[in-house]
Amino acid sequence: MKNKAVILGCNYYIGLSTIRCLGTNGIHTVAVDYSNEGTYGAKSKYTSERLIVPHYKEQKQDFIQYLLDYGRKQDAKPVLIPCHDSYVEVIDEHLEELREVYLIPQTEQGLYTKAMNKEVLHRIASEKGVNVPETVRVYEENLYEKVETILGYPCIVKPTDSPSFVAKFRRKIFKVHNKEELAEALQKAKDANLEVIVQRIIPGFDDHMYTFDAYLNQESKVTHWVTAQKFRQYPINFGASVYTMQRYVPDLYDIGAKFLEEIGWKGFAEIEFKKDAETGKYYLIEINVRITNFNTMLNKVGMNVPYITYMELIGQPLAPTALKEDKNIVFWYGYEDLLAVRDYIKTGQLSAGQVFKSYFKKHAYAIWDWKDPVPAISYAGMIAGKVAKKLTKK
Fold first, then answer.
1. 206-376: what fold?
2. What does the pLDDT look like over 278-296, one tens digit per residue?
């Protein structure tokens, strides 16, 4: 096929899985990153071409210009696929000029950013009749009284811009148990010049987290979808998927498909829901607007998101699919799952026996692949290096 696939961000397993999903289908893959260091994803045998580009934030204009120059040199428009939220933000900011030389599913500039902004998403979801956690804005009068009466403690201080918050604090939220901790968390966010909101914690263990993963065509209609249930996250309780299983939950389609179609979404999106352990209601938590962490699992159950994206954008859309049965395949990110299991057991949320039993399922590995072992070997070397540095410091 003439159109190349340009994959932004290859120092994480999302980029790696994207390269594999496309490369195994004979597509020319271009692995893009700002450094050679840590880019184990680009070491896949399915990588056709590697590019080292200016940093997407520190040298934003140079980065955009590089992409534009590269795109203009190609015989056919490449398909542009970001594998990190920060790349999505930059693409959204320069969507119109990038679309002149690249194929990108989204056509409405700003929609990516709206979906990624937790406060804006909360407002839009409320307007569309979708359940969202009760929220107090930090600029409201009687803030502390409202938090205590409407939300209760513990509650969470959540960023409106997750990538910037995670880059600063290496966590997704602040969990606070009283007024003093809330004041401290708000001050930290203020000092970092980051906007936050305060939300109620929806009751339920991590296995009450679910996802609706969907692809919407250029008419903003859901053509492919799968639902999944999380079992473990890292960091625990408020982190990313490390052990997640495909599970058919029709209610999530009813809520998620309607919402995404109504807001005019195009391309892939993953809505994270939490099921209230007391009421059974599903609450929209956030939307992931780039390839999901457990992309390898989606691929194994028949939803190859990068390939679906590529084929539709080059004018050869695949037949619609919906997985309405349980395949019992689990995404497993072994390294961080071990860290998560340690913390779950330490806090008494899981027993060793429960964890042991959970492993007797068919796995879709985050990094390891018998047919493409080099990235995993490279990653293992990186982890060994980090461990060695820690031991040396001690």
1. D-amino Acid Aminotransferase; Chain A, domain 1 (3.30.470)
2. 999 999 999 999 999 999 9
